[in-house]
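Justification of resources, computational component.

The compute hours requested in this renewal are based largely on the per-chain cost of generating structure records like the one below. Each record pairs the submitted sequence with a full structure-token output. That output is archived, and it is also reused by downstream analysis tasks.
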Amino acid sequence: MPTFPKLVAALGMAVLALLASQRIMTFRPEGTDFGNFIWVNLALGLVMGWVVIGRRAGRGMAAGVSNGFTGVVALVFWGLFVQAVAQMVELANRNRYSGPFEALSDIFQIMADYGLELLDAPLITMLLVGAIVIGLVTEIAALRRG
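The structure output for this chain reads:
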């Protein structure tokens, strides 16, 4: 059921995903084709905010901060997974794999490689501060509705 806290969390996570995606794009060489990178991450942010943070709103400020962290961790995990699957499909289309199991196992290697790229202090700070702010703002929205 749509609620105002779910909307607030979804929009907050979408903005955080957009900002994080723009920061991540600076890590790659100039001229890299990112395709739908930002749009995919934006959609993931909306979903994680709505489902993970918004659904748990209304349990107090400490729980709100915890929900914010949970939402950001889910966003990072699913972002890595979806982008790794997209990369694997692109490599599979170039016949880089000898079989389906090699392709599937490469997803986790690609996730690990992408995850190492995320070890950037400003990006981590952005995600942590974003998690706290989104969690608290969602809780405030939950308090205001009733």
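The two ends are 16 Å apart (CA to CA). The chain has a mean pLDDT of 93.
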